[in-house]
């Protein structure tokens, strides 16, 4: 087999070099597996930053950590999208019944596990922020109802806060309001991230592998044979039914002929009366 020009870390783009097709495939597999490890490490970094954000006291500290989180999330979003594209590209160049498909499916499985872990981290962070929103609201409005708290958690309802601040210490209430604004923005970002992750799952579940032409030809022949057998069976069934009817009609004809002969014999006997 000759050589082709293929990227070192990507089968579709990048710096080109002379690489054997088989070697190019395994280079990409190795690169994707390393990329997946990097993704898992970045997810852990995001989780640690989220924990740090929840423990900050001042608005400035919280904003600084949240900016770091946003930067890592944006970077990871691009990495995940590119990872999905590369897995799809590799799958489309791999025959489904080949050993190479096993390597691609393993990468897909590992990547899905990382995405699932990322979803768990985001869900947990959202849950804790919602709890923090409820605590902040209760600071300025200890008599808040469950419905009020739910509206703040789901809508970041600032008018409710402003009303509560009128009856609370202004400095404390303003700080709580800023906290609500920040946390609600983070919750919105998490919801957007969750939508992106769900879309990645959908794309991965729709991976398309190459079909071996020989297999496809055999499959087509098998389907044609099955159709012919079914058609033949139907024809044979009709023929058998016709044969059954013919045999049945033959027996009825014999019976009728026999009866007619008996009638003729009796008619002749009674005419000539041989016994007289």
From TrEMBL:
Keywords, alphabetical: Coiled coil, Membrane, Transmembrane, Transmembrane helix
GO molecular function annotations of the record: SNAP receptor activity; SNARE binding
All copies of domain T-SNARE coiled-coil homology, residue ranges: 177-239
Coiled-coil regions, chain positions: 29-124, 177-207
Domain of life: Eukaryota
Subcellular location, principal: membrane
GO-annotated cellular components: endomembrane system; plasma membrane; SNARE complex
Localization per Swiss-Prot or TrEMBL: Membrane
UniProt record, GO biological process: exocytosis; intracellular protein transport; vesicle docking; vesicle fusion
Membrane topology according to the record: Single-pass type IV membrane protein
Any Pfam family matching the protein: SNARE
Keyword Transmembrane helix part of the UniProt annotation: yes
Membrane-crossing segments per the record: 251-272
Family the UniProt entry places it in: Belongs to the syntaxin family.
Protein name as annotated: Plasma membrane t-SNARE, secretory vesicle fusion
Organism expressing this protein natively: Orbilia blumenaviensis
